[in-house]
Structures are given as structure tokens and as C-alpha cells.
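Table 4 source record.
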Amino acid sequence: MKKILIILFLLSCQMLFAQKKALVTRLEATIYSAEKTEGKNALVNFARQKGVSVSNQTESQESFLIEMNLTENALKKLDSLILNLGYIESRNLQTVEDVQNNGKDSLRIVFLQKKMQTYQNEISKMDSMSNRYFKYWEDIRSMEEEIYQLQANQIDARQRVMRYSASVRIYQESIEKGISFVNMPGLEYTMLFVESPNPAVSTQRYAGYSLKYMFTKGKSYFNVGAMKAQNRTEADSLSYSELFLVGFGQDFYTRYLGR
């Protein structure tokens, strides 16, 4: 019977101080936005409305960072929210194994228990009305409270199965003043359909290729190309067999329009 009790005691100690493996789902995102302040307000309001725990919030002139612990449902809604905050440079959602290591807490508990026993032995020899007695008594109460808190943390760690956290950083996207040049050549295929072709002037259909060269960040471009008649007959020798294209334009892109 004594051996059985010893085995049960050892098993209970092993369960108390064992490492607990839990799953942690973490969302990490980096966003560039022309309106960093609006993005920051959206994230702060989200955290306030959902009642999530914000573990870190840091802001500078160039960026805003918020880190939070939240529920699975709140994490899904946050993942949808960030899609509307700007250009997402990176987004990483992963579930990893989180080892809840209670080793340090266990050592601390053993240390406090031994220290508390020493204090109890000393206090039994003191005058109960002395200042030293009250000092030792307060230290013992403090150690008891710390041991209780450490043991409560260990129990909480064993009960956790899944945790969710997120880290979102928004950078202020700079908008250059003046013209910002780029070097972006491209190839374009063009078809032209003539609604009422004149046999002596044009055929019904032309097709060909052109070089489209974009030269500003605001998508200003020019193109040069040529098209050949597709259904020109030998009898129609007066119509144009080739057409040459030269063009200049500006794609609509509101953020960098014209620049």
C-alpha cells in the first residue's frame, strides 16, 4: 500500500511540473498605406470593439505596430479587415506548437517553500511583539501569495489548448512630389475593325503589334507599332496594306495621377 501511495505521489508531481504543448495560431502582416492614421484608427477601434487584449502598441512617424491576443473568431475578422487597409506586402498565418515550460516556475516554488520553512523555524523563536517578528511574518505571507500565483499559472498553462495572436504593422507609403520616372517597356497586340471599309482606301480588318513604354510612376506612356491588313485581296491594290501607330496616353491611377 505504501508503494502504491508513493507511485501516485510521483505521478501527480510529474503531471504538475510537466511541460505542456499547446497550439498557437499567429497572424503577422505588413501593410503599406497612403493613410497610415486611418489604418491605425481602424485597428485600434477593432481591438476596442472586440474587447481583445493588446500586448503591444507602438507608433512612429513612419509606421504603426499593434500586437494582440484574441479569439479565433476575432482573428478571422481581423484577417478580413487588413485586406482593406492598403497594400499588403506580407501576410503570414501559421499554427505552431507552443511549449509551456513550467520548469522555472517549479524551481521558484521549491526555492520559496524552503525559504518559507526556514523563516517559520526562525519566527517560532522570536518575540511575537518584536519588529523582526512582524517583518518575518510579512515575508512569509508574501512568499505564500507568490507560490499560490505560480501554481495558478501552471494550472492555467495546462488547461490552455489553443491560443490566437496577431501582429500588424502599417507603414506610411510616401507619395513623391513632382514627376517620378520609371522604366517599364511592354508589348501590345492591337486589332482594328473598320465599320464601313472603302475598297480603294482600307480593308475590313487590321492587326499587328506595338511597343508600349511606360515612363512615369503615374503610368504615362507612349506606344509605337504597325498593323497589317488581314483580308486584303490582290484586286484591291489601292487600299492601305499597313497602318502605323504612334500614341501617347495616361492610365488612370488616382494615387499617382500624372506623376
